[in-house]
Amino acid sequence: MDRLMALQAFARVVELGGFTKASDSLQMSKTSVSDLVQSLEKHLGVRLLQRTTRRVTVTADGAAFYERCSLILADLDEAEASVMQARVAPKGRLRVDMPGALARIFIIPKLPAFLARYPDLRLELGMGLRPVHLLEEGIDCVVRIGVQKDSGLVARRVGTMSTVCCASPAYLQEHGIPRRPEDLSAHRCVTYVSNRTGGVLEWEFTRDTQKTSLNVDGILAVNDHDAYIVASLMGLGIVKVANYVAQPYLESGQLTQVLADWTAEQSPISVMYPQSRHLSAKVRIFVDWVSDLIQQDPMLKPR
After folding, report:
1. Domains in the chain, ordered, with CATH?
2. Residues in CB range of 150: below 8 A, 6 or more apart
3. What is the pTM of this model?
4. pLDDT in tens, 13-23
5. 39 with 7: CB under 8 angstroms?
């Protein structure tokens, strides 16, 4: 039995939830993957996986063993990568997913220099906030905003997003200016729908020791920052939007900030990638580049 291959096969079955997906990922036959896992179980004298015709689940012994062997595999990958990266230029396809507004405003304008430095990279940039399964979809890393649930991914915090409340001058002239969060109940608001949960996001505010969370009854709900801004520009109501999205419109006078003495919630910006894999040269370079790029901007610098 090739113990290393057996460990890799077992770990991939656990991560992907089945032999078929594991065999595709490892570019091996399903029979070979199954034989490796069976040999490992025989060697250890315990059952690691519970197999039925419909699904594969991890036994208690298997879960404990996976925790240990995943660390071993990660250390081995890291050791190989540390040697190889010194002499191998990053190349090949790099698949990344991130929020569209963040990509449009901060990342894409800086990509010409990045891609010129690494001409053998082929970047595929998905833009959205839907839940993604990195291993199953072949995505190398994602950039996410907000506190993330425990997903089995490493989350490297690289910045902080703040939000601001604003509206068009025409709307405020007609409807007045709210002075405190409770005043919003008398105003028209445009709310934002979370792509992750499908629910409308609460509006949270802090001033000194006061904290307020509101379920705003919006006249319109959207799930796209561009649509959100257009709605506010058209005078549909007050919005609470990412500071970096609103900034150009605040500077031009097309939008006016309200409730400026109340601090809206701040959300972490994180780069996330599987903890069971080492960072390849191309992923490591991109993660470090995105981290530096975001931390250099005053609006996104971690607080």
Report:
1. 3-84 (1.10.10.10), 92-145+276-295 (3.40.190.10), 161-266 (3.40.190.10)
2. none
3. 0.64
4. 888 888 888 88
5. no
